[in-house]
Design goal:
This protein is of the alpha/beta class. It is built from 14 helices and 9 strands.
Length: about 400
């Protein structure tokens, strides 16, 4: 983890409002030091210096994260979410070394008007409130173009890119994609774990593939310049979407089913089809997802087993990272919203040891230091590291974003 960025002035989410008057105040989880620092890397002083240099000098892009802060007391989670005012973790981000982050919000659990989540009006409220807060400071900027990411890299800022994990909120209204693009959304999933008008999610008993409406939506996303994600889509729907798109497609946060046999992981066929069309897979690190036979207790080592598997399968130029972390108790979030997030169906019937957090990839502040440190320790070159932590994603964005 780095020292705080000199660009960061200490701004806290919604500082422009009065806590207790304009919104309900909660005690939030610590962004730094909530859990012990990762001790699994054995780096020499020279390797630590190289890790820090690569993190600070490279364009580092997280393909998928949730950079909000959650209540310290997770029994307050539903009340916190219901008020619709998610706080961005500026302090933690200031020590992350990240240049750009695709922030997917919490719209599956954005339960302002409905406990089911994914409601269009709730999503618009969530996006608008988050953007209003970001507009009141100058360290994290709204990212909508490749130039925004380049500007962030040049000036020591972070480009915050709004994304949605599913197109579910558009229902059967393709023009809603234009509205969401206008709000700043630049990446969108086809379906979350449950099926929608576009196609099937990974929890369904059967996968009917991409619908005709799904094809229309993909055509519109291509025209608008919204990057497409198939991380939570069913196997057939994912491959259909990759083939239907005229632009490369992302698997923003997943791992390899060939290494860990759950629906949440992607088949070799899906990963290969994604790569054949120029796309990239971001390796996932949310609790109890990217486990491996070699490291069945979820940690950085488990995650990097999936990284190496995918590199061997499709080549280093098609692999990156979408760690899917947040500031707070991620396991507690999963427990509280297991039905919304289809945790049981996603993980299937594979037995695994439950952990309190993923050691080494617990939050956005620490993730890329440890990822780069692992790559340094395992003798990857500077060019290879720059490619997988951001260069591969930039290549795709230059093609996809119009």
């Amino acid at each position: 983890m780095l020292d705080p960025s000199p660009r960061y002035t200490g701004y806290t989410a919604y500082d422009y409002l009065e806590a207790g008057k304009d919104y309900r105040e909660f005690r939030y989880a610590a962004q730094i030091g909530r859990v012990p620092a990762y001790a699994g890397l054995d780096l020499s002083d020279a390797q630590k210096e190289r890790t820090t240099r690569l993190l600070t000098e490279s364009t580092v892009i997280s393909l998928h994260d949730h950079v909000q802060v959650f209540p310290e007391d997770m029994t307050q989670l539903r009340d916190h979410i219901r008020q619709g005012r998610e706080p961005t973790g500026y302090e933690g981000l200031s020590r992350s070394g990240i240049t750009a982050v695709f922030d997917n919000g919490m719209d599956g659990t954005c339960c302002i008007s409905s406990d089911a989540g994914w409601k269009y009006q709730d999503v618009l409220f969530d996006l608008g409130v988050r953007m209003a807060d970001i507009a009141h400071q100058d360290f994290v900027i709204k990212g909508e173009t490749v130039k925004d990411i380049e500007y962030a890299a040049e000036t020591g800022r972070i480009a915050h890119i709004f994304a949605l994990e599913a197109a579910t909120p558009i229902e059967n209204e393709v023009d809603r994609l234009d509205v969401l693009y206008g709000f700043g959304v630049r990446q969108m999933g086809i379906a979350y774990s449950e099926a929608n008008y576009l196609g099937s999610g990974l929890k369904e008993r059967g996968d009917g593939g991409l619908t005709y409406f799904g094809e229309r939506a993909i055509e519109r996303m291509n025209k608008l310049g919204i990057a497409i994600d198939v991380s939570h889509s069913g196997d057939r729907t994912a491959v259909d979407a990759i083939k239907a798109s005229t632009q490369p497609v992302f698997i923003t946060h997943a791992g390899a089913r060939g290494l860990w046999p759950t629906n949440r992981m992607k088949t070799d066929e899906t990963i290969i089809e994604c790569a054949k069309r120029g796309g990239v897979i971001g390796i996932e690190a949310a609790p109890h997802t990217t486990l491996s036979p070699q490291h069945p207790r979820h940690s950085l080592e488990s995650v990097m087993d999936h990284f190496q598997y995918c590199v061997d399968l499709v080549g280093l130029e098609h692999v990156s990272f979408g760690p899917d972390t947040l500031f707070g108790d991620h396991v507690g979030l999963h427990d509280a919203f297991s039905s919304n997030l289809s945790i049981g169906q996603a993980h299937g019937h594979v037995d695994y040891e439950k952990v309190e957090y993923v050691d080494g990839l617990e939050n956005p502040a620490e993730e890329f230091y440890n990822i780069i440190g692992w790559l340094v320790e395992h003798d990857y070159s500077d060019d290879e590291i720059r490619a997988v932590v951001g260069g591969n994603t930039m290549r795709v964005l230059k093609e996809v974003w119009v």
